[in-house]
């Protein structure tokens, strides 16, 4: 046998021997195709969009919905307010006599019944026009209505007999979801009124102090007391006999003017949220002194904390109290 034939025979015997051996994991034969599955990284958690007026995570379809603004009269014989607990933002004005006025804004979630619907007042339009809301109002005096008309905001009243309005005991109420669904196509996605903190981010970079009770005492009005509930992480109060809660309290101190309105047959007190002034912000059991600025009718509201740092609110509903310069605010 030649040397070449012996080498070929040895190679063949080696291959035959290896064919019967397992060289991979138990049970996998060497003749089987190797496992070439690619290495897969774990999937990151899906990032959900945040509602523009609360900073809370919502479905993508909710982000672009129109905001609906509903003025609601509180006190002086008015029916107890309903629907305030569903609003993303509530502006509260200390009006004439013992009257409070709320301007409730609904965007991320509807209220089946909000009201009683009242007249729009200048502060509502001046402070909240940047949200580009669809406005529901009732019996607004011409002078106030002219200001609303100048903004070119779409508006509707119960008298137009559109779906969504109901009447009970002579008072008008609105289903904000129905109104939102029927909003004109020209309505835009609202721009955020505030900046919201990320998880673990503080209210302000410096100057925060603990606060669990906030009391606002305005002349001619019953003291309004807010208490922070650690379990729900909400500030709780009773407004016009209705329990309400907020993740944030934004107190803006500003001047009020008095004006005789013939259509209402009385003198009214009107807050003016254009300019600048002292602000006090309360969130997550903390408070901070700040300063607010709104330099023009269509300008954005800006709030800066100590050393000109931005103030970032906790995600959730916010109440904005337009505090008269004559009022007293105490915290503990």
From TrEMBL:
<dbReference type="InterPro" id="IPR023158">
    <property type="entry name" value="YerB-like_sf"/>
</dbReference>
<feature type="signal peptide">
    <location>
        <begin position="1"/>
        <end position="19"/>
    </location>
</feature>
<feature type="domain" description="DUF3048">
    <location>
        <begin position="53"/>
        <end position="176"/>
    </location>
</feature>
<dbReference type="Pfam" id="PF11258">
    <property type="entry name" value="DUF3048"/>
</dbReference>
<protein>
    <recommendedName>
        <fullName>DUF3048 domain-containing protein</fullName>
    </recommendedName>
</protein>
<feature type="domain" description="DUF3048">
    <location>
        <begin position="224"/>
        <end position="320"/>
    </location>
</feature>
<dbReference type="Pfam" id="PF17479">
    <property type="entry name" value="DUF3048_C"/>
</dbReference>
<keyword id="KW-0732">Signal</keyword>
<dbReference type="InterPro" id="IPR021416">
    <property type="entry name" value="DUF3048_N"/>
</dbReference>
<dbReference type="InterPro" id="IPR035328">
    <property type="entry name" value="DUF3048_C"/>
</dbReference>
């Amino acid at each position: 046998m030649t040397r070449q034939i012996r080498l070929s025979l040895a190679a063949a015997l080696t291959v035959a021997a290896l064919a019967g051996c397992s060289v991979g994991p138990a049970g996998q034969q060497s003749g089987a195709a190797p496992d070439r599955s690619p290495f897969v990284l774990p999937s990151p958690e899906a990032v959900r969009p945040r509602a523009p007026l609360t900073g809370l995570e919502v479905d993508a379809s909710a982000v672009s919905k129109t905001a609906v603004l509903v003025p609601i009269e509180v006190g002086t014989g008015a029916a107890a307010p309903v629907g305030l607990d569903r609003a993303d933002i509530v502006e509260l004005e200390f009006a004439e006599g013992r009257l409070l006025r709320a301007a409730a804004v609904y965007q991320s979630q509807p209220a089946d019944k909000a009201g009683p619907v009242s007249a729009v007042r200048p502060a509502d339009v001046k402070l909240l026009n940047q949200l580009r809301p669809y406005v529901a109002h009732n019996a607004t005096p011409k002078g106030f209505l002219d200001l609303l008309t100048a903004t070119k905001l779409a508006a509707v009243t119960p008298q137009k007999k559109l779906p969504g309005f109901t009447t009970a005991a002579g008072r008008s109420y609105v289903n904000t979801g129905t109104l939102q669904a029927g909003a004109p196509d020209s309505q835009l996605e609202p721009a955020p009124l505030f900046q919201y903190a990320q998880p673990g981010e503080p209210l302000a970079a410096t100057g925060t102090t603990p606060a669990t009770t906030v009391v606002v005492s305005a002349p001619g009005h019953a003291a309004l007391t807010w208490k922070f509930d650690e379990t729900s992480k909400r500030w709780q109060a009773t407004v016009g006999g209705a329990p309400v809660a907020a993740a944030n309290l934004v107190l803006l101190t500003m001047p009020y003017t008095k004006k005789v309105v013939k259509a209402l047959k009385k003198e009214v007190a009107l807050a003016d949220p254009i300019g600048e002034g002292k602000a006090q912000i309360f969130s997550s059991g903390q408070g901070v002194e700040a300063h607010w600025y709104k330099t023009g009718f269509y300008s954005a509201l800006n709030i800066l904390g100590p050393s000109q740092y931005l103030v970032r609110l906790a995600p959730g509903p916010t109440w904005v109290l337009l505090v008269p310069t004559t009022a007293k605010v105490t915290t503990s």
